[in-house]
Amino acid sequence: MRPDSSSPPRPLVWLLEDSSLEARATQAALAPSCEVQHFADGASLVEALSFHAPPDVMVLDRETPGLTGLEVCRFVRAAPLTAQLPVLLLTSHQRPEDVVEGLDAGANDYAFKPFRPSELVARVHGLARWSWQQKKSAREAAAALERTRQTLSLAQSTLEEVRNAEARAWRSDQRFRLAARATRDAIWEWEPETDSLDWSGSAHAVLGTPQSGRIPREAWWRERVHPEDLSAVRRGFREAIEGTGETWQSAHRFLGIAGTWLDVEERAFIVRDSRGHAVQVVGALQDVTARRQQEAEARKRSDFERQLIGIVSHDLRNPLAAVHLTARLLLRREGLTDVQEKQVHRIILSTERAVRMVRDLLDFTQVRQGGLSLNPRDMDFHTVVEAAVEEAQVAFPGRAITVSRSGDGLGRWDADRLAQVVGNLLGNALNYGAPDEPIQVRSHGQDSGVVLEVHNTGVPIPDTFLPRLFEPLERGVPHPEGRVDRNIGLGLFIVRQVVRAHGGTVTARSTLQTGTTFTVLLPRHRPGSPPATPPG
């Protein structure tokens, strides 16, 4: 809430703090006199700046996972709209060089942990008052400058208008003529008194429109507009002229100079007098035949894709299921040699991989056709994560996977889709991570939602790949030749789509020293849906 004349000022404070315990302590100190919005990570705070008005004060924890408070501060200072936003850094580091680094990043003030609540409140209110005063001074200066500008403008406008009226009219006419010659559209002007059209533009070679001179509108339309479209064109134009709108547009067939019917679009702007009567109408006629043909071909290709995916989903999954079932039954037979058993296992793994590829293709097509469908229900996120890990462990019995959980995991999500997210991230880590090092999976519940982290060591993802890592058909590290577990590059793309459909975010960071970590942040319920209720 911003300060006004009828209520005491309550600054709006955005708090960046990854520790839920320290966040609650800070909110408890500020809440009696401030409106506090908490962010558990810097990426969410920066993203919120794109959709919401900035706060009066930012209180940033200096060190947070991912985007740190220092980095958020530098980002705020680099953006013109937030360059003057007051920033207070919270930190447990009290070395002079740490303070200097924070101030160099653009912080207005510094508070050391543990802080005294009264001191923190005083610092925040001081920054808020300074911010309000700066804004007030800026408004007053802008208002004074505007008054001065208006006074000078009023004194000069009459003389300038007299001197330049003729020049402006000439330039406007010249601009119009040059633009009409440069465009491929046919430009026309309708004169209400004579009901005639004055044509210009460079499209006469294709459309057969007159290069100059006025022609009767009604006779022209009868000659060139397709008979089946003529009545609709007439009616639409008459309703636009007699109405109150400022535009008229139509799509119809038009007889071109070659004697063939073309698909055209017309759009006109209507100028009205004080009584609402149309006094000038200027429009453009554009040949869109080629574009319509391209659109029809694109629709055909899209229909073919849907048919192809339908064939894949129906005709390919069934035989794959039969192969998988048969291989499972073979394993139960007695008397298989070690070589035969190994070959059957390979059949099973290859079949499961093919099934995953089919599923990814289906999801990819579904996204392109309008988005993933979700079936949310109340559930425990930790349980879904552990089940997905168990499934991956069965597929990779020789690999070590460690699992840890903390906090409240209750929320409302699509369990199958989240299992797909965990499975794809685990599969990525198992395929690309160092084979002799464990994969670490951590699920954590916090105030704003739940967090999933999947970490592996090994060859890092190149920095050049990170920005497009979640795009379709992209891989961060090339597969060695001959690998049988290669995929089609849709796993991470589908991860991002599922997470976005739940209103969350997914990020990746990768270095040689720390390894590769994928982090998923999910709200406990999708925006616009009811909150989750505890099971039972």
Automatic annotation (TrEMBL):
Catalytic activity of the protein: ATP + protein L-histidine = ADP + protein N-phospho-L-histidine
Modification 4-aspartylphosphate occurs at: D61
Pfam families the record matches: HATPase_c, HisKA, PAS_3, Response_reg
NCBIfam families, sorted: sensory_box
Histidine kinase domain boundaries: 311-526
Matches recorded under SUPFAM superfamilies: ATPase domain of HSP90 chaperone/DNA topoisomerase II/histidine kinase (SSF55874), CheY-like (SSF52172), Homodimeric domain of signal transducing histidine kinase (SSF47384), PYP-like sensor domain (PAS domain) (SSF55785)
Domain Response regulatory: 12-128
Phosphoprotein listed as a keyword: yes
Keywords for this protein: Phosphoprotein
Listed GO MF terms: phosphorelay sensor kinase activity
Domain of life: Bacteria
EC number: 2.7.13.3
Domain PAC residues, every copy: 248-300
Name of this protein: histidine kinase
Ranges of residues in domain PAS: 172-244
